[in-house]
Amino acid sequence: EHQATSSRLGALMTIIPIKVILIIPHMVVLMIMGIVLWFAAAIGVLAVLINGRYPHKISEIIKTIFTYHQEVGFYILCLTDKYPSISWKKPSNGMIDQLKNAVNIG
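Below the sequence we write its predicted structure tokens.
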């Protein structure tokens, strides 16, 4: 009798090409966000030179971009199955918290 065996390599070979196709719109958004990030950082540096403090709104923009980048990275590296959402309302640390809990980081 032939027993069916599960192959993790076989599963990854089917999942990863699908994820690469699904992630294309996020890569376009990340390229645009990279340009926004560069300008936000430049404005932040100028604000520090002029006012002596970093603007809160600019740090929120940069935090949102980095959080989104991490969510996309976690998805493409198969660290999570949750498809990243494009949302600028509130940076969600859900995936980051899940990863911390998985590796028991305080």
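The helical segments are 8-22, 24-51, 56-76, 94-102.
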